[in-house]
Specification:
By secondary structure, this protein is an alpha+beta fold. 26% of the residues lie in helices and 27% in strands. It has three helices and eight strands, in the order βαβββαβαβββ. The protein has an eight-stranded mixed β-sheet with strand order 6-7-5-4-3-2-1-8, sandwiched between helices. A hairpin with a 2-residue loop joins strand 2 and strand 3. InterPro entries: Acyl_CoA_acyltransferase, GNAT_dom. One of its GO terms (molecular function) is acyltransferase activity, transferring groups other than amino-acyl groups. It comes from Pelagicoccus mobilis.
Length: 180
């Protein structure tokens, strides 16, 4: 199974928008949000990913098929922040077989610098996923905190990627374990 990240071209923004609706539907379980009267949750920063240089939208592909996305930006709580995973979504069919893990690791390898990851306090599966993935990537050299943040409730992880590689593709074996 070949897992890779592909920068989302502007022409494919409608595809990303539809996938964001699936993601926001999943998150509604934790954030108690409802769709608007048109049946959409909406993602107010979508257009910014093609107009602001510090935002980077990627499709997650498995064997050439779009199965999710990762949105990277430079917004967070850490003073020396270089990169942040704003959103990571993998379609349910592709979860727990290593796709999310491979996508996260590929995102980390795409840019070097100081990273920050956040997730909602009630999203236990995401908290387990990020702790495990960041721990694996950093060999335990990360910080986790959740106190002292004015408008955020949930864990924040920070770490530094000193590597200067620019690579956004990983291949996972067909025997990938139950990681997501």
């Amino acid at each position: 199974m070949k897992i890779e990240l592909q920068l989302v071209p502007f022409e494919e923004k409608p595809v990303l928008k539809r996938m964001l609706e699936l993601y926001l539907y999943d998150l509604s379980e934790f954030e108690s949000t409802d769709p608007n009267r048109c049946g959409e949750f909406g993602y107010r920063y979508l257009d910014h990913y093609w107009t602001e240089s510090e935002r980077h939208p990627y499709f997650v592909k498995v064997d050439g098929k779009n199965v999710g996305f990762v949105l990277l930006n430079r917004f967070g709580y850490s003073e020396s922040l270089d990169h942040s995973v704003a959103e990571l979504f993998i379609m349910r069919k592709y979860r727990k077989i290593g796709v999310g893990r491979s996508a996260a690791l590929a995102a980390f390898e795409t840019f070097h610098g100081f990273w920050e990851i956040r997730t909602h306090e009630k999203n236990e599966p995401a908290k387990r996923f990020w702790r495990r993935t960041i721990d694996e990537y950093t060999n335990g050299a990360f910080t986790e905190f959740s106190d002292g943040l004015k408008d955020w409730k949930g864990p924040v992880w920070t770490f530094e990627n000193k590597k200067s590689q620019t690579k956004a593709a990983l291949t996972a074996p067909d025997t990938a374990g139950p990681k997501s």
